[in-house]
Write a sequence for this structure.
């Protein structure tokens, strides 16, 4: 049963990644593209954790934690660059 | 058996919330509306997957870890900050100084006006005593 639920969740987050890609290509403004990239990072965190359950190893926590931190910092840095033209003043 | 059902429900609910958040990014019309879907629904979906992972490793592999709670706490903390930054970016890109409403305060929009002196906000009763002086 867990296997089927895992497959369902993999499919959901994979489709979510495709939706984000569509918004990145299509999005009218820079804010839309930054938002889609941030959502892509969150979806990929979910995919990494699901892969960890699938494999049955606890190795992937650190990877998902690192991806979460790098995604947050990069989103804030990109917004900061668009807002002020500089990241650290 | 019961544990299997609970883990599967967590996974399915997390997946549904994740796809709803990403579908809202396509479906909604305006950038400010689009901010709602990923910052709330997708964060909740990842939270469901993390709870499922924690239960799985607790009952199936007999290893108990707090790492997942750490990740979900980090995501819940950072989602409002990124949403605020993206709203500011949208205002900066799309709105002009004249189209924004007045702030009804002493100081204007922080995006356009120079910031006031770096004072910490005093409490409300202190402001009243200052104004009555």
């Amino acid at each position: 049963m867990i296997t089927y639920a895992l497959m369902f969740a993999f499919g959901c987050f994979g489709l979510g990644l495709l939706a984000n890609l569509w918004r990145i290509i299509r999005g009218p403004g820079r804010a839309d593209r930054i938002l889609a990239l941030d959502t892509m990072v969150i979806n990929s965190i979910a995919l990494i954790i699901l892969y960890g359950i699938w494999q049955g190893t606890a190795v992937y926590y650190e990877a998902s934690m690192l991806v979460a931190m790098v995604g947050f910092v990069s989103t804030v840095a990109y917004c900061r660059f668009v807002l002020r033209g500089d990241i650290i003043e | 058996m019961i544990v299997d059902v609970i883990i599967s429900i967590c996974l399915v609910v997390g997946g549904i919330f994740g796809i709803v958040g990403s579908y809202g990014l396509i479906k909604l019309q305006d950038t400010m509306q689009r901010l709602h879907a990923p910052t709330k629904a997708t964060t909740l979906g990842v939270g469901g997957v993390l709870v499922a992972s924690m239960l799985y490793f607790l009952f199936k592999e007999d290893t108990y870890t707090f790492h997942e709670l750490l990740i979900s706490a980090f995501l819940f903390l950072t989602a409002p900050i990124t949403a605020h930054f993206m709203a500011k970016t949208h205002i900066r890109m799309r709105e002009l100084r004249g189209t924004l409403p007045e702030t009804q305060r002493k100081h204007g929009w922080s995006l356009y006006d120079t910031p006031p002196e770096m004072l910490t906000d005093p409490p409300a009763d202190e402001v009243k005593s200052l104004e009555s002086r």
About this structure: Chain A touches chain B through 51 residues (CB under 8 Å). DSSP finds three helices and no strands in chain A.
